[in-house]
Amino acid sequence: MDIIRAVRGFKDILPPETEKWQYIEDTAANIFRAFGFKEIRIPILEKTELFRRGIGESTDIVEKEMYTFVDRGEESLTLRPEATASVIRAYLEHSLHSAEPVSKLFTIGPMFRRERPQKGRYRQFNQIDAEILGPDDPRTDAELILMLLHFLHSVGLENLNLEINSLGCERCRPAFREAIVSFLRGGKNELCEDCLRRISTNPLRIFDCKVDTCRQIIARAPLMTEFICTDCREHFLILQEGLRLFNVAYTVNARMVRGLDYYTRTTFEVTTESLGAQNAVLGGGRYDHLVKDLGGPDIPGIGFAIGLERLASLIPDHNGTASPILHLYIAALGNAALTTAFLLTNRLRLKGIHAETDYSGRSLKSQMKRADKLKSTFVLILGEKEINAKRALLRNMKSSSQEEVALDDIENIITNLTR
Ligand code: AMP
């Protein structure tokens, strides 16, 4: 019979990869905590309406990538394609805004988008997501980006490109949108089908089109920089000053629009050449109207989402993520030895010392091979004869020296040796 395989675009994360993920997640949690963030855990399933309203009807995500189904209660539900809308839903549902003027929340978990799978792009992928709700000061934007880069450097990432842009606000963006629409109408004949449709649905998304002819047209398109209002310009300049005060290198990319409708003012992305085609490690930005659009008060916000698969693929295995050390392997031969091995291994484990044994009764030679493969620091050789004499052979695998020790002392000896 054939085995059942995972769904296309859905991936297992196996050890030792999982150890790397734990290391990344622990580092994120520690660094974020120092910046005042607290963890929030939210459901994977939400009402479809949340993402339609939050992300925007005419985005690629909502138009063609969501896993949406009608459940047995006749309700349309969606596996979350991103976390921001859900975090805000929870923030409003539990009135976090009335308890605190500023909420800094982070969450880590899987997202679902039915995109075409390829290297670095999956249908279930994981994100580290952080959101600051309350402040609209550009220094907040700067410190969020500062925290982000500190985290990426802490897990060993180098050669990163930070790109920032301002998408303006509800006062200055409409004029930019108008200008883009009339510019595109001029070059209509050469645009791809998607971009033709975008002229009326979501003209800014044309900056993300990968089709060559469209790219050539877009290269001549007007930019937000020409339309940005004084307040937005000042906001953007203070953000940049904040980054410079911490020597954070960045480039302004006036063509970066990002794929979600809710962004206002600051947007940013971190890319690296080492990732190939899917080169974005993370993306984020300010969303000053999203809370209101989701039915809440007028509260601004800013956040980012890091792709965990892409981040993990950039970190070498040995970078603080080595497998836990195996301190002792007990090679047990014969029934009486098995019971002692069972007792000893588990007593040591309860003390936090990693010990392994083998209850299969395999030959000493194959157990020694196994201990070697597991890179055990010590091996205890325990046979019928040793049990009767209440003694056993303790072998140091590095120096290949061995000594006879009293069985009653082993726990103490190993505890002292591994301290
Ligand atoms: P977004 O939510 O689209 O701004 O994406 C933020 C980050 O999530 C990206 O920079 C990627 O690192 C990651 N990401 C987005 N979509 C996928 C996907 N389909 N597969 C793997 N990672 C993804």
Task: List the ions, cofactors and other small molecules found in this model.
Answer: adenosine monophosphate
Q: How can the largest sheet be summarized?
A: 8 strands, mixed
User: Could you give the order of strands across the largest sheet?
Assistant: 1-5-6-11-10-9-7-8
Q: For the record, what CATH class of the largest domain applies?
A: Alpha Beta
| CATH topology heading of the largest domain | BirA Bifunctional Protein, domain 2
Helix content bin: 25-40%
Subunit arrangement of the protein: single chain
* CATH homologous superfamily heading of the largest domain: Bira Bifunctional Protein, Domain 2
Low confidence ranges: none
Name the average pLDDT.
94
CA radius of gyration is: 28 Å
Task: Please count the helical segments.
Answer: 16
- Provide the domain count: 2
Q: Structural class, from secondary structure content? A: alpha+beta
Distance between the termini: 50 Å
Tell the overall outline. Answer: elongated
**Shape-level CATH architecture of the largest domain:** 2-Layer Sandwich
Number of strands: 16
